[in-house]
Design a protein that fits this description.
29% of the residues lie in helices and 14% in strands. By secondary structure, the chain is of the alpha/beta class. The strands form 2 sheets. The protein has a 6-stranded mixed beta sheet. It has a two-stranded parallel sheet with strand order 2-4. The two termini are 32 Å apart. Keywords: Signal.
């Protein structure tokens, strides 16, 4: 499924979209160059980057009109992101595991932001990530009693999965009106981290990311949670590469199953998306 279908045809933030089936095949070296301030990719990446953007322009039906990329969310919040976790599992969650998941999400998100900090007018060196809520079927699954996050129970999507209050979700209120959210704008969520028992691969879009709960728990302390990283890339607009490979490159994160971290090519594709969208923010 194309990225735009994944981004926009989810009428509620519940459908899985296309699965990015990521069975890690071979490691790829991490990018080692410092963040570039202007558009000056290495010579060997100029042609494949041009090919990628031409492909994006020809296959995304509303590339420039779509206004809920991860970029739009960061800019609307003036440099931050709020998440709500959809815990579609009966595995108990301790306060310690809750905090580990939060730390891991912040770490993975930062890897992408670090790739664009200081580049071509991007205004933030850091984009804090806050988890403001958890959604579960049964409150007893969450083994904490503090009120550090909102807890949503009894709100289910059409497939019976727990979801966070639509009144608080940006996907449902892209005009920024959270007047019906119990906690107001401060407790709104921009994206969902949807963790589903038995879910293979992943899915990602403007609504957030979906991966297996067992996978997330098992990888929570890893430096690179590569399926989550891949799906975050989709949230910022990056495409999949199931049926073609840009000239002269291979083994990069957005080419599912070929890399376990953000590579140099991934970073330049990410920067390329920013430089094509930044004018909408007056930059």
């Amino acid at each position: 499924m194309s990225l735009v279908r994944r981004l926009r045809t989810l009428l509620v933030a519940v459908a899985a979209g296309a699965l990015s089936v990521i069975g890690f095949a071979a490691p790829a070296g991490a990018a080692t160059s410092s963040t570039a301030g202007t558009w000056n990719p290495p010579n060997n990446l100029v042609q494949p980057l041009n090919e990628v953007w031409r492909h994006v322009e020809s296959t995304y039906p509303d590339l420039y009109g779509f206004k809920n990329y991860g970029w739009d969310q960061v800019m609307a919040n003036r440099g931050s992101l709020n998440y709500c976790v959809r815990w579609e599992s009966d595995q108990p969650v301790s306060a310690a595991l809750r905090d580990q998941i939060h730390t891991a999400l912040k770490h993975q998100s930062k890897k992408w932001i670090d790739s664009v900090a200081g580049f071509d007018g991007f205004p933030y060196n850091d984009v804090p990530v806050k988890i403001v809520g958890w959604a579960v079927k049964n409150r007893s699954t969450l083994q904490w009693t503090d009120n550090s996050v909102d807890v949503y129970t009894g709100i289910l999507d059409g497939g019976g999965a727990p979801q966070c209050a639509p009144d608080c979700g940006r996907f449902f209120h892209q005009d920024g009106n959270y007047s019906k959210c119990p906690g107001g704008a401060a407790r709104h969520y921009d994206q969902s981290l949807w963790l589903t028992k038995g879910f293979g691969g992943g899915a990602g879009g403007d609504w957030g990311q979906r991966i297996g709960s067992e996978y997330m728990v098992g990888a929570v302390n890893q430096d690179n949670i590569h399926i989550l990283l891949h799906e975050i890339g989709h949230t910022y607009g990056l495409d999949d590469f199931y049926d073609w490979t840009p000239t002269g490159v291979g083994g990069f994160l957005m080419q599912a199953g070929t890399a376990d971290r953000i590579t140099e090519f991934d970073k330049w594709m990410y920067r390329d998306f920013w430089r094509h969208l930044k004018s909408r923010y007056g930059l």
